[in-house]
Structures are given as structure tokens and as C-alpha cells.
Specification:
Helix content is about 65%, strand content about 5%. The protein has a six-stranded parallel β-sheet with strand order 7-9-10-11-8-12, with helices on both faces. Strands 1-2-3 form a three-stranded antiparallel β-sheet, with no helix packed on it. Helix 36 (about 805-820) runs antiparallel to helix 37. The chain is of the alpha/beta class. A hairpin with a 5-residue loop joins strand 1 and strand 2 (about 15).
Length: about 1000
């Protein structure tokens, strides 16, 4: 189920499943803000125009709004296809449809109302929880960063006032619950921000009085009186004055002796509480969130009169013990009866048994050896009894598991227990799990700087960044690296960075004294069952990639291996990084853990290790071919080798490719790495076949760098293996991407080589595909006659092979040659035949291409309205099929039509979007065409500098492409424009 969130309580945001959706420029954001402040209500176009253009609106304002709405719908639909319909069009304006739970200001109001009801029932704890949730929705001021329309004033003021009221209610609830110190701290800030609000002063004084700070309360009253007198010329209201009178009475009764209960407690409390905590690292860096949450948890549970237990788990060397010690030191005053610390040796070959640990803890609490029970249950009961009446913090470091620590826990009272472990403990009831993760880059940089000194880091910032990356932001690794540099003052940071660059030596380098990353990881690895250890070593051989669960099963040669994966995840040797677009969890190995796994894998039987990796690569090939088969677009090329057998899908993975584009998106980087891995291991057939199976997705989504990289590897692999068919397929695909990137000589060579190879093996259909590509290259180069011959030859071969999809492509290509020759009647006949044939066979993609070509023809004939209608239809089909690549080109055509019809606002929007697509894809010819049109557009708008910038970029591109006619025509136009400007002082 998709989770949608519209956020106005701070900077405007839209989030789909937690991911923020880019909204575009200021105008679309203002439009969305106006709709969000009145959800499920039609907002008139007139009001929206006033919001977007408060001073003077352009004549095209209504059309611009339609464009912005279209853009917003598309961006929402990118998050989830159904979300584009949330913005509806009405005769008088637009409406945004959303439930109250999807809009933060609606949720805020609902939470505030529920909290008010809870306070009315005397349920302060429940109310406080609701109010905390409400306050957490605020990320800043309402619609921060956007200019506010005057019509929003009432709504913004209401929300701001409600936020302040919620703050007051939260503080009132805290005071009622006895959390006066927290309330005082927050109220100090609020009265500074809102010094004229008497309710806040009243609550501050009440909180100070409840905290026993009568003198401070009186001082706060006097400050309030002074502020009110100076700013408003008034005195405090009756409620504040009554409160002041009660303070006077309390102050008079203050001199008093301690109560007998207080004296009794003092007598029974030990004079010197035990404190066994190790040193709190002076260079401890970061972790404010984790430390703050744990301190808050312990204080909350103490106030509730209940024990608190937290389990800190994480990967080897991540700093779990350091965090636990930092927290224990931070709460010493909250647990004044003592702090205990025990090393449970959970990662050693002999974890400490609970009996011996209980003895150590009881001795620390004053129980002599003669008083220690001999039975585990009795000894645990005695510890619970001793802890029940105290306020102590206990640190149980390096626990092996829940069974080891369960007898060591308090049963009642207000003690706090911190447990560190390399494994998660879901079976430890009542414990709060806390994952200690790697340091963020900024905190890792501070840690390294704190160890080696800021001057050395500042002198070589790039090398420092490299060291952070090579250490994987792991605190232990950073401490080892820092210690090495500290004890080698003659080393530059570059020396260490260079030594760490080689992954085969990295773990050798990350060792100093008794600190060593390898030794730390070994402790965790040695505890693994055999199957988990085998899987861990196999994962190291896959490289630095993310992977789904089926990969572990493939490595082990099993149908399923979730149990093994769970062991690795719970041991923090494999990291769960999230879910992909198919809804499947994805995992990874930390880089240093991967280096360790690679070391171990070198000791495996080579043939078994290769077979395990081959099973994974075959699984990816099977899934990629299946996904390519299911793509909505008929790929004009060959992506599978049906002359050879295909591996079976990995067990339980058939549903992963139900949405093929989502699967490709999730696995793109891993598949690209898999092509290289297959080639490195000598699995050449797997390398080129996997690369070919990726081509349909790369083509549809414009991932041209990945396309080029994988096919360069694949071509070498196909040639090494002597597979002529494989080389022919890869050469054809390479010609296509080189054509996209205007490398016409390379594209022509690739298509020619592909045709020859297909002819060699008697594959007429493959040769026809190569011929069609060759015809396109020749048409672009101006060799129309030869191009036409190739296209007709391709058509004949497609017809003979019974390939109607190829026939439609060839007909479009023939029509394109006639269009280039300005033989419009011939061009129309071929385009129309292609359109009809595509519609007949249900090839929506070719249908859209035929429509786009017919639109270009109608543009040449001066029928701009007809051309626009056909381009709109083509864009709708491309959008429906998810073909971002072709949408960019169609936007270019439509933008050109708007430009020639004088609708410059629409033209600019479409052409700028198209330009970004062409630049991303490396299509210099299309970039030149669009840049030239944008130059004409800005010239029409009298924006001469911007016009010249675009035009000069176009001219440079035409020169790079050796396109003499286009270069000459544009150079002449620029010269004429420059002369006109020189002669016109108004534009000079």
C-alpha cells in the first residue's frame, strides 16, 4: 500500500512511501501549496493566478497553470501511477483530493483535538503522547521558503496559534506528570520567543514552584512584570498575581528541616556508591541521536518507577561499547546508587556463564562469598532483590545472547540496564532494541580529525575523504587508521590512503597494537553455523553490490535460505539496506566485511566457489531475460539467444518480474556489476547474454552509460568465446547506442559488422535489424539514396521472416528518408502504412513513432494544429509505456510546434525539459536542435543575452558534429542579429 504525505508545516514537501518527490520550480510549488491549504475544495483559476502572479499576470497565465498542473501530476505519478489523479480539473479551477491522514496540518489538528479530550478526562500521559506526535509534525514555519499570498493569512495564523496552544498543553501535561525539569527548560525558550504571552509565564512559574525552586519562580514573575510594563504598559493579569501571592506564602514557610524519611534514606544509602564504568572516550564523536534517545528512555522509565533495559547491537567495530559507556556516564546523576560494568565475553570461545557473572555482580553489591546462593535461580533472585530498592545503571558488555543475560536483569525498581551484543535479541522480552550503525560521513570525519589533528586533515582533505571511504566509516577502522597516523608523524595522509587502496592488503593495514579489524570480525565469523559461514564467503565474491534473498540460496545451491540470511543479519555480518521497487528486501556486505569474506573465500575449493558464483549469475540471466520478455515495448533488436538453452528462474522468484521495469530498476547496478564479474571469471557466454538482456531496459530508460559499459565488456567476451551470434547481437546494440550519441562513424561500423555476422550465420531477421540501423545512419549523413536501398532491403527481409514489428520500423525509416527529401506525399504514404500496421498488430510503441513522424510531416505542410494533436497522442502513448527516452524527443517536437505557433511559455517549458533529457543521454544533435530553438525563443522574448548563450552552444555542437549546413545557417543568423543589435542602441 502506497503511503502518501503532503507536508506544509515547514518547507513544502510531498513524500511517497517516505521518499520526497521533487516538485519543480517556485510556481508549481506555490500552486500545490494553494491547493493543500484548502484540500478537497475547488480552488478557482482566478485565485491561483493571484497566488502565482500577485502583481501582474501574463496573458498565458491560465495556460501556464495547466502546464504546472500537468507537471505536478507527472511528478506525483512518478512516485506511484495512481497519484497523478489526485489533482483534479474542474470547470472553475482545480482540486486536490487527499484524506486528512495524508496532510500534515489536518493530522496536526486531529491530534490536538484528541489530546484536548484526553486532558479533559485527566489522562495526562495519553495526552502528552498525542501532543508530542502533533509537535513532531512541525519542521519549521508554515510553507517556509515560499512567498505567502495575502489570502493565506488567516489559515497560517490559525495554524501558528494552534501550534503555540499545543506547546502550552504539552507543558501543562508534563508538569502534571512531575516532569518539571523538562518543562522548565522548554518554557525558558518559549518565553524568550513569546515574551508577551502570559500563559507561558504562568506555566514557567508553576513548573519552577513544582520543582521546588520558589526563588527562581519569584524571579520569573518579576521578569514577566517588567516585560509587560515595558512593552505594553500594563501589569500582570489576575492569574499571574494570584500565583505570585501563593509564592510569597510558600517562601515564608520555606525554612524547614529535612523530613525523617529523608534522614532515613541518607543513613541507609552507601556513602560511596560503586562505579565500575570504564573511561568515557574523550574523543567520542557523534551518536547524539542514539545517546539522547537512550538517556531519555532511562529517565522516562525511572520517573515511571520501572526498570529500563536496552540492547545495543551492531556490526563488529561499530562502537557499541563506546556508546553504552557514554550513555552510562550521562545518566550517573539519575542513578546515584552506583554503576556496574561486566564483560560477558560473548564473542570469545567461552562466553561467561550467568552463575559466575551473578557472583561478580553480587560481590560488587556487598554480598560476601559465604552469602552467595549455590543455585542459579536463587542467585538471580538475590540480585533482583538487591537491585529492586536501588537506582543503579548496569552495563552488560559483549553478550552472547538472551539466554546469557536473562538471569542478570532486574525485576522491579528503577534500575537501567545497557546490553551490548553483536547479535540482535528479539527473544529478550521487555528490552528496547537499538541498532548502532556506521558513522555518517561528517561524524566520521570529526572522529578522524580528533585523532590525527585538524591541521593534517585540512592539509590533505581529499586523502582524508579517501581514508574515511576505505575504512567504510567504521569507528574501529578509523581509530586504527588514526592511531597509525598519530604514531607516524612523518607520514602524509596520502601514504595511508594509497596503502588502503588495495583491498587485498586493506585488513593488513588496519591493525595497530591490539586493535585490528580482522581480529574483531573473526570473533563474529567463528560463531556462525557452517551454512551461514559458507554463504558469507560466497557473498564476498560478488563484489560491492546489493542483493536480494534468493542470491544466498543460489550460493548454497538451495531452493530457499531465509534462515541462513536471518542468521547473518542478526549477527550484523549482512546489512539490511531497505526494500526495492518490487517490495523485496535488499542486503549488502560492509566493504571491510567483504574484504574479510574474500580472504576466506580464497581458501575454499576453487571449483566449488566458481560454481556457487555461476549459479548466481545464471539466476540473474534468467530473471533479466524474463523481465525483458515482459517489457511493454517491443525492443528493436535481439536481447536473447534462443539457439542456446536458458537457465531456469531461481526458485520462488517468478513474481519478482511481474513489474519488469521495477525489477530492472532495483537490480540495474547489480546486473551491470554481474556482467563484469562474469567476464572476469571466464563465464563469457553469461557476460554477453546478460548484457544483451539488459539492453531493452537501458534503451527505454536512457541509461546510456551502463549500456555502453556492459556492451564493451560483452563484445570482448563474445569475441573471446568465438560466439559469432553473440558478437552480432552486441554489435547491433552498440550501433544503436552510438547512433543515439551521434557517433555516426562508429555506429555505421558496428551496424555493418553486425550485418556481416548475421549473414554469416544465416540469420536474415538479425541482418534486417542491422540494415535498418545502417539506413538511419546513412540518412542522417545525407546519403539518402543508399539509405533508401538499405531500408527497402530491410523491409523485404522482415517480410520474408514474418516480422511485422520490423516491417513497421522499416516503413517509418523509409518515410523518414522521403521526408528528408521533402517528398511529402511519399513520406505520408509510408508513415500511414506504418501507423496502420502498428495498430493492427498492437505495437503501441511503433504506433507512437509513426504518429510523431506524421506530426513532423504536418508541421512541414503548415498544419500546426494537426501536428500538435498527433504529437500529443504520441506523448500519451510513450508516457503510458514508461518510455522516458522517447518522451524527451516528443517533447522537443511539441515544443517546436508551440514555438512556431507563438505559445512561447509552453514552448519554453517543453524545450527545457527536452534539453535536459538530451544532455543526460549524450545526444548532441538533438541538444543542438533544442538549443537553437531556445535561442530563437529568447530572441522573440527580447532576452538577447540568453538567446546568444543558447545559440552559441548550438553553433559549437553543430561544429563538433561537422553539420555544415546547420552551422552555416546559424552562424549567418547570429551575424545578422549582432549587426542589428549594434545598429540599435536600445538593444546594444
Amino acid at each position: 500500500m502506497t503511503i502518501l504525505g503532503f507536508r506544509v508545516l515547514g518547507p513544502l514537501e510531498v513524500a511517497v512511501d517516505g521518499q520526497v518527490v521533487p516538485l519543480g520550480g517556485p510556481k508549481p510549488r506555490l500552486l500545490l501549496a494553494a491547493l493543500l491549504l484548502q484540500p478537497n475544495v475547488v480552488v478557482s483559476t482566478e485565485l491561483l493566478i493571484e497566488v502565482l502572479w500577485p502583481s501582474s499576470a501574463p496573458r498565458s497565465a491560465a495556460a501556464n497553470i495547466r502546464t504546472y498542473v500537468h507537471s505536478l501530476r507527472k511528478r506525483l505519478a512518478d512516485g506511484h501511477p495512481e497519484l497523478g489523479e489526485r489533482i483534479g480539473s474542474r470547470a472553475s479551477g482545480y482540486i486536490l483530493k487527499a484524506g486528512p491522514e495524508e496532510i500534515d496540518h489536518s493530522t496536526f489538528g486531529e491530534l490536538a483535538a484528541r489530546a484536548q479530550d484526553a486532558l479533559g478526562r485527566g489522562e495526562a500521559e495519553s495526552a502528552l503522547g498525542l501532543l508530542d506526535q502533533a509537535e513532531a509534525l512541525w519542521r519549521g514555519e508554515v510553507l517556509e521558503g515560499l512567498p505567502h499570498d495575502h489570502g493565506w493569512g488567516a489559515t497560517v495564523a490559525r495554524l501558528t496559534e494552534l501550534r503555540l496552544a499545543v506547546s502550552e498543553q504539552r507543558l501543562r501535561a508534563r508538569i502534571e506528570l512531575g516532569r518539571t525539569a523538562e518543562a522548565v527548560a522548554e518554557l525558558r525558550g518559549l518565553v524568550t520567543e513569546h515574551p508577551l504571552r502570559e500563559e507561558l509565564w504562568h506555566q514557567l512559574i508553576v513548573a519552577l514552584r513544582a520543582d521546588g525552586r520558589t526563588t527562581d519562580a519569584i524571579e520569573a514573575y518579576e521578569t514577566a512584570g517588567k516585560v509587560l510594563a515595558e512593552e505594553l504598559g500594563t501589569e500582570p493579569g489576575p492569574r499571574l498575581r494570584e500565583l505570585r501571592a501563593s509564592l510569597a506564602q510558600a517562601s515564608a514557610a520555606a525554612p524547614n528541616t529535612a523530613s525523617p524519611n529523608t534522614v532515613a534514606v541518607a543513613i541507609t544509602r552507601p556513602m560511596a556508591p560503586v562505579c565500575q564504568l570504564p573511561l568515557d572516550l574523550p574523543d567520542f564523536t557523534g551518536r547524539e541521536g542514539v545517546v539522547g534517545n537512550l538517556v531519555g528512555l532511562f529517565r522516562k522509565r525511572r520517573e515511571q518507577g520501572k526498570p529500563a533495559i536496552a540492547v545495543l547491537s551492531g556490526a563488529p567495530g561499530v562502537g557499541k561499547s563506546s556508546v553504552a559507556i557514554r550513555v552510562a556516564h550521562a545518566v550517573r546523576e539519575d542513578f546515584p546508587d552506583g554503576q556496574l560494568h561486566v564483560d560477558l565475553a560473548g564473542t570469545s570461545s567461552s562466553p561467561r556463564p550467568p552463575m559466575s557473572v551473578l557472583a561478580e555482580l553480587l560481590r560488587a553489591l556487598g554480598v560476601p562469598d559465604a552469602g552467595l546462593p549455590r543455585d542459579l535461580a536463587e542467585r538471580a533472585a538475590l540480585l533482583r532483590s538487591r537491585l529492586a530498592g536501588t537506582r543503579m545503571c548496569v552495563v552488560l558488555d559483549d553478550a552472547a545472547g538472551a539466554a546469557q543475560v536473562r538471569p542478570l536483569l532486574p525485576g522491579a525498581g528503577t534500575c537501567a540496564v545497557l546490553i551490548t551484543s553483536r547479535v540482535r535479541m528479539p527473544d529478550l522480552a521487555g528490552a528496547t532494541p537499538v541498532d548502532v550503525d556506521l558513522l555518517p560521513e561528517s561524524e566520521a570525519a570529526k572522529l578522524l580529525e580528533g585523532i590525527v589533528g585538524s591541521e593534517r586533515v585540512a592539509a590533505e582533505p581529499e586523502c582524508a575523504t579517501a581514508i574515511l571511504r576505505q575504512c567504510g566509516y567504521l569507528p574501529l577502522a578509523l581509530r586504527v587508521a588514526g592511531a597509525k597516523l598519530t604514531h607516524r608523524p612523518g607520514w602524509t595522509l596520502r601514504v595511508l590512503a594509497d596503502r588502503l587502496r588495495d583491498e587485498r592488503r586493506r585488513l593488513d593495514e588496519l591493525r595497530v597494537g591490539d586493535l585490528a579489524v580482522r581480529a574483531s570480525v573473526t570473533l563474529s565469523y567463528d560463531l556462525l553455523p557452517m551454512s551461514a559461514a559458507t554463504a558469507f564467503r560466497g557473498l564476498g565474491g560478488l563484489g560491492s553490490v546489493q542483493f536480494p534473498a534468493w542470491v544466498v540460496a543460489a550460493l548454497l545451491g538451495r531452493d530457499l535460505a531465509e534462515d541462513v540470511l536471518d542468521v547473518l543479519v542478526d549477527a550484523h555480518l549482512v546489512e539490511l539496506v531497505g526494500s526495492d521497487g518490487t517490495g523485496q528486501p535488499r542486503y549488502r556486505l560492509h566493504d571491510l566485511l567483504r574484504c574479510y569474506a574474500v580472504e576466506l573465500r580464497a581458501q575454499d575449493v576453487p571449483s566449488k566457489a566458481r560454481d556457487a558464483t555461476k549459479r548466481v549469475l545464471e539466476g540473474y540471466l534468467a530473471l533479466a531475460v524474463e523481465a525483458a520478455d515482459r517489457m511493454p515495448i517491443d525492443f528493436f533488436g535481439i536481447y536473447r539467444d534462443d539457439t542456446a538453452g536458458h537457465p531456469n528462474l531461481p526458485p520462488g522468484t517468478a513474481d519478482l518480474v511481474e513489474d519488469p521495469a521495477a525489477w530492472f530498476a532495483a537490480e540495474r547496478h547489480t546486473c551491470v556489476a554481474a556482467v563484469s564479474l562474469a567476464a572476469e571469471l571466464g563465464f563469457d557466454a553469461l557476460a554477453w547474454r546478460l548484457a544483451a538482456a539488459l539492453a531493452p531496459y537501458f534503451d527505454q530508460r536512457g541509461h546510456q552509460d551502463d549500456w555502453l559499459h556492459t556492451h564493451a565488456v560483452a563484445l570482448a567476451a563474445a569475441r573471446r568465446s568465438g560466439e559469432v551470434r553473440g558478437e552480432a547481437i552486441i554489435q547491433r546494440n552498440l550501433g544503436q547506442i552510438q547512433l543515439y550519441q551521434d557517433s555516426y562513424a562508429d555506429a555505421q561500423t558496428a551496424f555493418e559488422q553486425s550485418q556481416l555476422l548475421f549473414d554469416k550465420i544465416g540469420d536474415a531477421q538479425g541482418a534486417a535489424i542491422a540494415l535498418a540501423g545502417l539506413g538511419t545512419v546513412l540518412r542522417i549523413k545525407g546519403e539518402d539514396t543508399v539509405a533508401l536501398d538499405h531500408c527497402h532491403a530491410a523491409l523485404d527481409q522482415f517480410s520474408a521472416a514474418g516480422d511485422p514489428h520490423g516491417e513497421a520500423v522499416a516503413r517509418i525509416a523509409i518515410g523518414a528518408v522521403w521526408l528528408a527529401r521533402h517528398r511529402f506525399a511519399d513520406a505520408e504514404r509510408w508513415f500511414t502504412e506504418a501507423l496502420e500496421q502498428s495498430a493492427e498488430i498492437g505495437d503501441r510503441h511503433r504506433e507512437a513513432h509513426a504518429l510523431k513522424r506524421l506530426a513532423m510531416l504536418q508541421q512541414h505542410l503548415g498544419d500546426l494544429a494537426g501536428a500538435r494533436e498527433r504529437v500529443d497522442r504520441a506523448i500519451a502513448i510513450f508516457n503510458e509505456l514508461g518510455d522516458d527516452h522517447c518522451v524527451g524527443y516528443a517533447n522537443q517536437n511539441l515544443g517546436e510546434l508551440y514555438l512556431h505557433s507563438g505559445d512561447l511559455a509552453h514552448a519554453q517549458l517543453l524545450l527545457v525539459n527536452s534539453l535536459s533529457v538530451h544532455r543526460r543521454n549524450g545526444d548532441r544533435r538533438s541538444e543542438a536542435e533544442v538549443s537553437q530553438m531556445l535561442g530563437e525563443l529568447h530572441e522573440a522574448l527580447s532576452q538577447h543575452e540568453r538567446s546568444r548563450t543558447y545559440s552559441e552552444r548550438a553553433l559549437a555542437l553543430w561544429r563538433e558534429l561537422s553539420a555544415r549546413p546547420q552551422e552555416s545557417a546559424l552562424a549567418s543568423r547570429l551575424q545578422e542579429s549582432a549587426e542589428a543589435s549594434y545598429g540599435n542602441p536600445a538593444t546594444a
